[in-house]
Amino acid sequence: MQFKGTVFRYGRDIDTDVIIPARYLNTSDPAKLAKHCLEDLDKTFVSRVKPGDIVVADENFGCGSSREHAPVCIKAAGVSCVIAKSFARIFYRNSINMGLPIFECPEACDGISDGDVVSVDADTGTIMNETTGAVFHAQPFPPFIQEIINAGGLVARTKAKLAARKEA
User: Fold this and answer.
1) What are the pLDDT digits (tens) for 65-111?
2) How far is CA 59 from CA 85, 88, 130, 141, in A?
3) DSSP letter at 130?
4) pTM
5) DSSP states of 10-74
């Protein structure tokens, strides 16, 4: 899987209450959640983000509560992937389960600025800052995790596997 987009750069400890404020958790509709993605951190995010854009952050992205709404709203807002120095573990797993590609790469985060254009090869973990020409390497996911993400998440992958079994 390949991604290319403009970077929205944020700092450390971006918690799930900032990614999707609790006042919007009365829905699980991805389109409705997307309208409020990161609004308490960056009021202009939703109006500026384009499909394929990339979020880059420092340490501990997705800390806080374990709500699945956070990766759902990021993905539904059009973000192709998130690159961070580190992720909160529950957010990390929720992202995989929801089909949101995430990459831990401290060097890339230090070498990417807000507004840069970045491309990511998810199969190899190669991250290229197209603006500066710098290349970084994140650990790619093993094939079974890539399969979950490529399917659109754990539920979508499971449904596809069950459907394939019925057809066989």
Assistant:
1) 878 999 999 999 999 999 999 999 999 999 999 999 999 999 999 99
2) 5, 9, 23, 19
3) T
4) 0.94
5) --S--BHHHHS-GGGTT---HHHHHTTTTTTT-TTHHHH--TT-EEEE-SSBTBSS--THHHHHH
